[in-house]
Design brief:
mainly beta; nine-stranded antiparallel β-sheet; 2 helices; about 5% helix; globular; single chain
């Protein structure tokens, strides 16, 4: 399934996005925090090892907060593929956050953070790099859309084309009261 088909099946095709009215009452995220959201798959090149991962949180000038879940499986044979590991993850620290540009309330950039992968066997230190490009704005980071997960000396890299979505946003809804 390509990205266009994925967006269409998720109800986020260009017609759906174009029909969203301009939001009123949107304020920049507090304290220069940028929100991130992603659901994507990455692989170790040349192996059947794949990680499906989700995440939500915030990055700022000097910190990262957030977490999500993951399933590490091997893409061999026919589904269901064998699960190697699964659990949740939590951000520990921000290593870097580079902004490529903004487009409305969306932001293209790369955040790299230290995380803990939490499994039934305990916590495992890892590095997570989340990459967001904004094709409609012509803003690209120079790296493929998705996530890089480095754990135990191995790095899972985004599929090209991307399998999933990543997005940074600079706004949170604020309702008058």
């Amino acid at each position: 399934m390509n990205r266009r088909q994925f967006l269409k099946s998720a109800g986020a095709g260009s017609l759906a996005l174009a029909s969203i009215p301009v939001l009123e009452g949107v304020a920049l995220a507090a304290g220069d925090q940028t929100n991130f959201h992603f659901v994507a798959l990455s692989q170790i090149a040349g192996t059947p090892d794949v990680v499906a991962m989700t995440g939500d949180g915030k990055v700022g000038p000097s910190n990262a907060v957030g977490g999500g879940s993951f399933v590490h499986f091997q893409s061999v044979g026919t589904p269901p593929f064998p699960i190697v590991g699964q659990g949740t993850w939590k951000a520990r620290n921000l290593m870097s956050f580079d902004v490529a540009g903004t487009y409305g309330v969306l932001l293209a950039g790369i955040a790299e953070m230290g995380i803990d992968l939490v499994t039934s066997g305990g916590a495992i230190a890892a590095t997570l790099k989340v990459v967001c490009n904004l094709g409609p704005a012509g803003i690209f980071t120079g790296q493929p859309e998705g996530f890089f997960l480095t754990v135990g000396g191995a790095t899972f890299q985004p599929f090209v084309p991307a399998l999933g979505l990543t997005v940074y946003t600079t706004a949170n809804e604020r309702r008058g009261g």
